[in-house]
Specification:
With about 475 residues, the protein is an alpha/beta fold. The protein has helices spanning about 10-20, 70-75, 85-100, 115-125, 140-145, 170-175, 200-205, 210-215, 220-230, 260-265, 285-295, 375-385, 390-400, 410-420, 425-430, 440, 445-450, 455-484; strands at about 60, 65-70, 105, 110, 135, 195-200, 235, 245-255, 270-275, 275-280, 305, 320-330, 340-345, 360, 365, 420-425. The strands form 5 sheets. Strands 6, 7, 8, 11, 12 and 13 form a 6-stranded mixed sheet that branches. It has a 4-stranded mixed sheet with strand order 4-2-5-15. Strands 1-3 form a two-stranded parallel sheet. A hairpin with a 2-residue loop joins strand 9 and strand 10 (about 275-280). It is globular, with a radius of gyration of 23 Å.
C-alpha cells in the first residue's frame, strides 16, 4: 500500500526543492498549507477502481460498529461537513459509498475501549445479524473474535480484493493464521506508525550529520541514534543535577515508546508457520539491544524519558530541550504551535545491513461478524469503503504537515518511508493484553519501569506460559477453519 498520493501543490514544492528551485535539505519556514484537500479517490497508476456499475442494493442499510479509540472515534463517522479537511474527507467517503452502491449507512454503534469487542461478541453468540462491519482497537479482542468463530473469512467475501493498493497486503499477510483472513488493514484505517522526531537546532549545534541523508543512505541505525543522543547533556539551570529542566538527548513518555524498539531493529516477536505460531523473542541480539536501551534511557544525565505512571512532571519534546523523542506520526500535529524547528525520520535500523526500516504501528483493523446475512452487500461495501479511504489518508497526511508542525519538504519523503515501513506483530496484536504474552510484548517497559535489568531471568520464567498461549490461539483458530 502506497499511502502518500501527494497532492499537486505539494508535488510542486518537492519538485522545486529537488530540481534547483531550492537546495534539498534547506529549511523552509513558510507553512506548507497551500494544497487544498481533495475528496476524489486516487488509485495507483493503471489500477482500476472497483466496478460498481452493476451494483444496486436498493437503499439497504449498512450497519457499522466501532470502538471509541484513537483516530477511529475522532474522524471516521462525522455527521456533517465542518471545514476540517480530514473530517470532510471522511464525510465524503460515507456519502460516496452510499451513492456508489445505493445503500444507506446507519449511524454507527459505539463501544467503549476495552468493552467494544465484548459487545460485538454478545450479538454473534446470540446469532444476531446486528452489524455488517466492525472497527477494532489495536490489540483488544482479536483472540476472542478468532478463536470463537466470530469473524468472517474476508477472503470469501464477494468483491473484496486484497491485491488492490488501498489495502496493505503485507500487513494482512502477516496477520493471517491458517488459510483465512479475518482482519483488514490499509487506507481504510488511519494509521499512525512509530517514528522519531528530532530537534534541528540541537542537531546543528552539535554539528550532527544530516538526518535525512542518513536515512536515504541506510546509515540511520540504533547505535547512531544512541551515540548522538548521548552527546547532549547540559545542566541548563546550573543546580548540579540533571532533571526535566535540563537539556539532554531524549525526552518524552516511554510507556509505549520502548515497545517500538525491538521491532525497529528487526526483532519480530512472533511468526506464523505451518507448524503454528513461533515465538522469536529471545536471542543474543535481543539481549544486546535491551542492555543498550536500559543503559541509555535510564541515565538521567543524557535522557529525560519518563514513565507516566511513576512521575508527576516529565519533560516533553515540545519543551525544546531534547534532541529526540519516539512518537507516532500523529504527534506532529500537537507540535504545530511549538517554537522549535523539528524533523521526522523512521525508527532506526539495527545496523546498515538491515534491509529496510521498520516502524511498528498500533493499528486497529476492520472485520466482519460471521452472523451477516448479506455477504454480497457487505463485501461490496467493504471494498468501496476501502477505496474511498484513499483521499482520507491524503487529507490526514496533508493535515499533519500543515502550519508549524513541520517546515521542510523532506518531511514528505520521510513520511512516505515511514508509512511504507509499517510492521505489526501477530502475537502482540492478537494477545497484547493477555497477562502472559504481554510479558514479551511490554518487556522493555515492564523491566525498565521497575529498574530490573535481568531480562534473561524474566524471559525464562515466562516462556512456558507464553508458548502455551500461542499454541492455544493457533489450535483453536485452525480447528474452526477445519470445521468450516
Amino acid at each position: 500500500m502506497k499511502h502518500l498520493k501527494l497532492l499537486p501543490a505539494l508535488l510542486l514544492i518537492a519538485t522545486l526543492a529537488s530540481c534547483g528551485g531550492e537546495a534539498a535539505g534547506t529549511t523552509d519556514t513558510t507553512p506548507v498549507d497551500t494544497a487544498p484537500a481533495t475528496t476524489e479517490a486516487v488509485t495507483e497508476p493503471g489500477y482500476p477502481a472497483p466496478d460498481t456499475s452493476s451494483l444496486d442494493f436498493g437503499g439497504d442499510e449498512l450497519r457499522i460498529f466501532s470502538v471509541q479509540w484513537g483516530n477511529v472515534s475522532k474522524y471516521y463517522f462525522p455527521e456533517e461537513e465542518t471545514g476540517d479537511s480530514v473530517l470532510d474527507a471522511c464525510y465524503s467517503r460515507l456519502r460516496n459509498v452510499e451513492e456508489a452502491l445505493n445503500v444507506k449507512i446507519a449511524e454507527p454503534a459505539w463501544g467503549a475501549d476495552g468493552q467494544a469487542h465484548k459487545d460485538v461478541m454478545k450479538t454473534v453468540q446470540a446469532g444476531d445479524d446486528a452489524y455488517d462491519m466492525v472497527f477494532t482497537h489495536c490489540i483488544d479482542g482479536y483472540s476472542d473474535y478468532a478463536t470463537n468463530n466470530a469473524v468472517y473469512n474476508l477472503d470469501a467475501l464477494p468483491y473484496v480484493n486484497f491485491e488492490a493498493p488501498w489495502w496493505s497486503k503485507s500487513m494482512i499477510d502477516t496477520f493471517r493464521i491458517g488459510t483465512e483472513t479475518y482482519f483488514g488493514f490499509g487506507d481504510i484505517i488511519l494509521n499512525t506508525p512509530s517514528s522519531i522526531f528530532f530537534n534541528k537546532e540541537i542537531a546543528a549545534e552539535y554539528d550532527m550529520p544530516d538526518h535525512y541523508q542518513m536515512v536515504r543512505d541506510g546509515k540511520w541505525t540504533y547505535d547512531t541514534f544512541l551515540k548522538q543522543a548521548r552527546m547532549v547533556s547540559i545542566d541548563v539551570n546550573g543546580d548540579g543535577k540533571m532533571d526535566y529542566n535540563d537539556k539532554t538527548g531524549y525526552a518524552g513518555d516511554l510507556t509505549e515508546s520502548l515497545g517500538n524498539i525491538p521491532f525497529a531493529v528487526g526483532i519480530q516477536l512472533t511468526k506464523y508457520t505451518d507448524d503454528g505460531l513461533q515465538l522469536n523473542f529471545w536471542s543474543d541480539k535481543l539481549l544486546e539491544v535491551f542492555n543498550k536501551t536500559y543503559d541509555y534511557f535510564l541515565d538521567p544525565s543524557v535522557s529525560q524519558g519518563y514513565f507516566r505512571h511513576y512521575v508527576d512532571v516529565g519533560q516533553g519534546f515540545g519543551d525544546g530541550l531534547s534532541l529526540y523523542t519516539i512518537a507516532n506520526v500523529s504527534g506532529m500535529a500537537s507540535l504545530r504551535d511549538v517554537d522549535i524547528e523539528f524533523g521526522v525520520v523512521p525508527m532506526p535500523k539495527y545496523d546498515e545491513s538491515q534491509s529496510e526500516y521498520r516502524c511498528y504501528v498500533w493499528s486497529p483493523s476492520v472485520c466482519v461478524p460471521t452472523t451477516i446475512l448479506r455477504p454480497e452487500l457487505v463485501g461490496a461495501a467493504l471494498e468501496q469503503f476501502a477505496y474511498e479511504s484513499v483521499p482520507v489518508t491524503n487529507a490526514y497526511i496533508e493535515d499533519l504537515i500543515r502550519g508549524k508542525s513541520t517546515r521542510d519538504t523532506e518531511t514528505l519523503e520521510m513520511l512516505d518511508i515511514i508509512y511504507d515501513s509499517q510492521v505489526l506483530d501477530i502475537g502482540g496484536t492478537y494477545l497484547g493484553f493477555d497477562s502472559n504474552f504481554r510479558k514479551v510484548f511490554y518487556c522493555f517497559y515492564d523491566l525498565m519501569s521497575t529498574k530490573n535489568d535481568n531480562v534473561a531471568s524474566f524471559y525464562e520464567k515466562s516462556e512456558k506460559a507464553i508458548l502455551k498461549v500461542l499454541d492455544n490461539l493457533y489450535t483453536k483458530v485452525i480447528e474452526n477453519q477445519s470445521i468450516d
